[in-house]
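User: Design a sequence. Structure:
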């Protein structure tokens, strides 16, 4: 799938083509990133300075060398969870942690050079949903002890074991600050959505705690100045020991970043370069490991904030990183007074935001196998291991898919062959059947392997005013495909393009109904059994005038572009019957109606005679209509 950067409005391209917007976007993203960088640094176990160093290195370098122009990168919840676990496992030797981070960056560069970026499309939705919800639960669980005024834990199980004692010895003031931080974040979002609530919470509560001399744990002294270089040890056994952690960070960073890239594409209507993005992320993480920073990835919230503030080019990401560097060099001593409970409260809101509520609310509505996969991945993510959770989910999803396909081929005599192809088959490419109305036919099952390409295919029809998704030959939809259709409908609706669905079979109809997608997000008026009825509805009978009330769809071939033409009867045909005129035989178009003296003949036949003043309603291939109009 070709990927390219779309030009800015007005045809401008280049880093300095959107200077004002990029400056505003970068500053906005930097302000939002500041409290998160400090919080993720503390939560990782490497300290707040490591969070800032990582945010600066990944933020600047991923923007400069990556493939998503508007993306903002930095420490994220999933990456921090992995680092925190590694810190606990390698107590007393942070050098090995930084080796793992740098090695993860090199792996990401290798993934990009090997062009593995496109494989993100093969991640089933239940696996992504369970994993992200699990990460959210981990982040929330790890903040419980700091909010109670106790030292943080390295794992969920360890934190739960210490929770009863922490509850007995609760620091009420710390708990109040943590709860106030949560409340301030959400209150700011409700009252002033454009103001970063995390920053308001961080600054406001830190000042309050300092002014009132509250007795709560603080961040402590943060090193000032430029970071020191952390060269890897020369011990090959030590390096080999961190390879699993490095691979986990690399894989997780790839998934996290590319999912954010897809979000950025949808908002900016551009196309990112997946492989280039992995290379940029890899360079950023490799340098972060060398200067003692936590690893990072594409950050969805910061990216969207950047775009909304006007950021469009890599310059916005660089500005965001340089702003954090300036703050680090000038204001680091002030950060020593930040209460840990405030950072914990901010991270609780981050964890809540990561949880996939759509997947959870549909748990009892989606196919049982998809729900089981999501549940297993969620539980394993929280209590076992992140990579093992994803691996188990992928294996389960693959086995379930094979089982479904084998059952489908026995039950339905259609070629599903591992799912529908959306590539270069001529009969499956989008077809413009009327002016600006496209039919997108899908042959075979839609599942996690081809749902994302379908989404990209439809979103590429930027000149459409309506799109008809033909699912007549689709016997099965999984959860990933159902949500892809949902996302397409919402994205197209935001652009003023209507999506219609036709030809639903029993299983696809059931899952779209149970998940509230169709009908629901798509009204009943945009769902049809017959695809020709869907095309007519998309065209709008009112827009076609008196022709819209005729049986025009029976004369339309959905395999090619057709036209509907209202034309005064040519003088050369006046006095002839339709049979004598042989319009269909000569020109390949059909006369579907005649308007005569304000009265419509909706069923003309061969003996119907053409009179002066008649208006003919013609339907046929566009080029044939043009030839008839000329001749």
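Assistant: Done.
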């Amino acid at each position: 799938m070709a990927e390219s950067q779309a030009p800015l409005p007005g045809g401008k391209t280049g880093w300095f083509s959107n200077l004002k917007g990029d400056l505003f976007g970068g500053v906005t993203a930097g302000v939002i990133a500041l409290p998160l960088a400090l919080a993720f640094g503390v939560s990782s176990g490497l300290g707040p300075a490591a969070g800032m160093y990582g945010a600066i290195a990944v933020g600047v370098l991923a923007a400069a060398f990556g493939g998503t122009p508007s993306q903002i990168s930095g420490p994220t919840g999933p990456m921090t969870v992995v680092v925190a676990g590694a810190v606990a496992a390698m107590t007393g030797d942070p050098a090995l942690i930084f080796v793992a981070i740098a090695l993860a960056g090199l792996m990401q560069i290798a993934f990009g050079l090997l062009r593995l970026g496109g494989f993100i499309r093969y991640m089933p939705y239940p696996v992504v949903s369970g994993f992200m919800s699990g990460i959210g639960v981990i982040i929330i669980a790890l903040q419980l002890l700091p909010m109670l005024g106790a030292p943080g834990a390295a794992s969920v199980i360890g934190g739960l074991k210490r929770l009863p004692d922490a509850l007995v010895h609760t620091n009420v003031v710390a708990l109040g600050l943590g709860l106030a931080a949560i409340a301030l974040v959400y209150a700011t979002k409700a009252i002033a959505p454009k103001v970063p609530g995390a920053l308001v919470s961080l600054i406001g509560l830190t000042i309050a705690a300092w002014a009132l001399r509250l007795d709560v744990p603080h961040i402590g002294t943060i090193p000032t100045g430029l970071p020191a270089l952390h060269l890897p040890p020369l011990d090959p056994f030590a390096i080999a020991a961190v390879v699993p952690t490095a691979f986990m960070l690399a894989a997780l960073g790839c998934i996290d970043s590319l999912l954010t890239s897809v979000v950025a594409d949808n908002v900016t209507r551009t196309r990112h370069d997946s492989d280039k993005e992995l290379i940029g992320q890899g360079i950023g993480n490799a340098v972060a490991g060398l200067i003692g920073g936590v690893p990072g990835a594409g950050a969805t919230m910061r990216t969207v904030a950047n775009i909304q503030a006007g950021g469009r080019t890599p310059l916005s990401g660089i500005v965001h990183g340089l702003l954090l560097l300036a703050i680090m060099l000038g204001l680091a001593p002030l950060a020593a007074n930040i209460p840990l409970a405030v950072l914990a409260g901010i991270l609780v809101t981050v964890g809540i935001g990561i949880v996939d509520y759509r997947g959870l609310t549909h748990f009892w509505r989606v196919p049982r196998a998809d729900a089981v996969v999501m549940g297993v991945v969620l539980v394993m993510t929280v209590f076992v291991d992140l990579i093992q959770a994803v691996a188990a989910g992928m294996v389960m999803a693959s086995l379930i898919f094979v089982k479904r396909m084998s059952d489908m081929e026995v039950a339905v005599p259609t070629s599903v062959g591992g799912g529908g192809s959306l590539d270069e088959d001529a009969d499956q490419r989008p077809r413009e059947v009327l002016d600006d109305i496209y039919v997108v036919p899908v042959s075979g099952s839609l599942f996690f392997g081809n749902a994302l390409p379908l989404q990209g295919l439809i979103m590429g029809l930027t000149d459409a005013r309506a799109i008809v998704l033909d699912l007549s030959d689709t016997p099965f939809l999984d959860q990933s495909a159902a949500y892809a259709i949902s996302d397409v409908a919402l994205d197209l609706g935001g652009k003023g393009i209507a999506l219609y669905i036709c030809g639903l079979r029993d299983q696809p109809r059931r899952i779209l109904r149970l998940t509230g997608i169709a009908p629901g997000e798509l009204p009943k008026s945009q769902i049809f059994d017959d695809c020709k009825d869907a095309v007519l509805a998309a065209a709008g009978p009112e827009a076609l005038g008196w022709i819209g009330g005729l049986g025009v769809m029976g004369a339309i071939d959905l395999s090619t572009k057709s036209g509907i033409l209202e034309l005064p009867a040519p003088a050369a045909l006046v006095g002839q019957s339709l049979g004598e005129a042989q319009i269909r035989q000569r020109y390949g178009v059909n006369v579907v109606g005649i308007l005569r003296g304000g009265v419509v003949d909706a069923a003309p036949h061969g003996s119907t005679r053409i009179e002066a003043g008649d208006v003919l309603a013609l339907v046929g291939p566009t080029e044939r209509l043009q030839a008839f109009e000329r001749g």
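The radius of gyration is 30 Å. The longest strand covers residues 466-473.
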